[in-house]
Amino acid sequence: MKIISSGLLLKWKLVFKVAPIIAVVVCTKLLVHHAGWEIISLSPLFTALVSANIFLIGFLISGVLSDYKESEKIPGDIAASLETLADEAIIIYKSKRAKVALDYLAYLAQFSHSLLQWFYKKERTEAVMQKLSHFNEFFLAFEHLTQANFIARLKQEQSFIRKTINRAHAIRETSFLQAGYLIAELITLFLVLGLVFIKISPYYESIFFVAFVSFILVYMILLIHDLDNPFGYAEKDTQVEDVSLKLLVDADRRLIALAQSFPSTDKHVFSPARPVANE
Fold first, then answer.
1. How many Cβ atoms are within 10 Å of 35's Cβ, its own excluded?
2. At what angle do helices 2-35 and 203-228 cross, to 10 degrees?
């Protein structure tokens, strides 16, 4: 029940953010009407501007959605690579009883936690990359314990995680088409102002259209900004449409449990406070 209520709150969060803005617009429209300041007449040109702005907003959404759909795969892909790296360590330990395999497994669990912290901007990208490169020391130690193709597979998973982190970093730090955002925001601002000063009869219809059109335009602008950063977990005010980290959190939990299952493992390093994944 708690999960359902939390999902509903996230679903309506953007509506609650837009509602005060629309309330201000409607109140301003009431003031303008009673003051007799409705000086703009409704014309086909105005409706054409609304259509043009909606077309521009649709173009921006199609751009950010491509990155968003790609971002949805990133946590699951990283989780699969981390658990594949753990499988290789278990194989080496069971076949050779090498303590270095347990050390590697412990380090992998710590790295998994650091990666989760990185998504919440509690770890720097450079620090995570250095920790990822440190796996090379374990791969070197594995050379006399396993076959060369096993080491090659480990290097492939390491390379995949590195590329995926770089891609997630680029998506998180780079905004899509800033000039397009600017023109869409300016047009939306002028259209809302135009709706406030436009004269539509009868009066109650003007209130409805002002509220409805303003809500749609402002809502879509805020939605585009939110979709543009699908990894905005550290930004509490914009966390509406972030991709779920549940698969990565679950993999992190399994890696910690796996490392703790070996009696020779130093357990005190496996009890960090982990962030809760958004469902």
1. 8
2. 140
* Alpha-carbon distances of 173 from 7, 64, 126, 236, rounded to whole Å: 26, 13, 14, 16
pLDDT above 90: residue 108: yes
DSSP 3-state assignment of 1? coil
Q: What residues does 40 pair with on adjacent strands?
A: 198
Residue 10: phi, psi to the nearest 5?
-65, -40
The answer to whether the Cα torsion of 57, 59, 60, 64 is positive or negative is positive
Cα 90–Cα 94–Cα 96 angle in degrees, nearest 5: 115
Q: Is 233 exposed, middle or buried (0-12, 13-18, 19+ CB in 10 A)?
A: buried
Cα–Cα distance for residue pair 237/232, rounded to 1 Å: 9
β-bridge partners, 199? 41
DSSP assignment, residue 230?
T
- Is 232 or 276 the better-scoring residue by pLDDT? 232
CB 30 within 8 A of CB 211: no
Domain ranges of the chain: 51-270
Q: Among candidates 112, 169, 108, 118, which has minimal Cα distance to 139?
A: 108
pLDDT bin (cut points 50, 70, 90) of residue 269 is very low
Residue 272, pLDDT > 50, answer no
CA gap 180, 53 in Å, rounded: 11
- CA atoms of 140 and 156, how far apart (whole Å): 15
Higher pLDDT, 137 or 13: 137
Alpha-carbon distance values, 30 to 24, 201, 219 (Å) = 10, 14, 22
- Helix (H) or strand (E) holding 199, with range, is strand 198-199
Q: Which two tokens stand for residue 12?
A: 């309506």
